[in-house]
Amino acid sequence: MKTIFIFFGRLCSFIIPKSFIRSWKAMKKCIFTGYMKNKFKHIGKNTLLSTDSTYHDTECIQIGDNCSIGNNCILTAWKKYSYTHQLFTPEILIGNHCEIGPQSHITAINRIVIGNNVLTGPRVLITDNAHGESNIEQLDLAPKYRPLFTPGPVIIDDNVWIGEGAMVMPNVHIGKGSIIAANSVVTKDIPPYSIAAGIPAKVIRTMIKN
Predict the structure, then answer these.
(1) Cα separation of 89 and 91, whole Å?
(2) What's the pTM value of the predicted model, to 2 decimals?
(3) Percent of the chain that is helix, strand, coil (3-state, to 5)
(4) Rounded to an integer, what distance in angstroms lies between the CA atom of residue 66 and that of residue 93?
(5) Residue 141 Cα to chain centre, angstroms
(6) Active site residue 173
(7) Residue 31 reports pLDDT greater than 90
(8) What's the order of all strands across the beta sheet hosting 61-63?
(9) Are 61 and 77 contacting, i.e. CB atoms less than 8 angstroms apart?
């Protein structure tokens, strides 16, 4: 069966222009986003969701205008964690004109706020929670059976750029206009207009506005 579909695809490549395939992909995103609009808390105008991304407890997720969610992303707000029977009231709030890069993962049991004009590269993790508090008693449990724990919310202000492969950990506030270098792990607050890099991320430069 797979061989037949591959042959059909090759046949189509001779008779269907590539521009039609691009148009079809864009059309699929529009149709999918329209279908999902009533399932989210809010989806703004001209925002597009990737059809192959994963969305969980979407009634707790709000996305502003003119945003793009890249391919193979995971947006998960967890109202219930079945392994430990915990209940949460999570929020994921994404502002206007944001682009979330492909294969990124945003997961909340508490609150994640992403401001306007935020850009992330591929494979970015933004989380407000962890599996357990890393004490000796919980380390004897399999990780999936450790109670989910949130030290605090994540706040990312306007105009922040987060590079590819970076991780933003719980209880962190990234200030306006800051840049997080690729593959950095942000564990502490980053002041506005700063460049941060490393594991853990440290401020390597802060710009002063005149």
Answers:
(1) 7
(2) 0.88
(3) 20, 30, 45
(4) 14
(5) 28
(6) no
(7) no
(8) 42-43, 61-63, 91-94, 111-114, 154-156, 172-174
(9) yes
pLDDT surpassing 80 at residue 84: yes
- Spatial CA neighbour of 129 closest among 97, 85, 90: 90
Three-state DSSP class for residue 200 = coil
pLDDT tens for each residue of 166-210: 999 999 999 999 999 999 999 999 999 999 999 999 999 988 766
User: What would the two tokens of residue 141 be?
Assistant: 């449990």
DSSP β-bridge partners for residue 99: 68, 119
Q: Which of 56, 85, 97, 131 is catalytic?
A: 131
85 in Cβ contact with 54 (< 8 Å): no
C-alpha to C-alpha distances, 8 to 13, 16, 26, 131, 136, nearest whole angstrom: 9, 12, 22, 46, 57
Token representation of residue 51: 């059809």
CA dihedral 170, 172, 177, 179 (to 10 degrees): -60
Looking up tokens 């591929």 gives 122
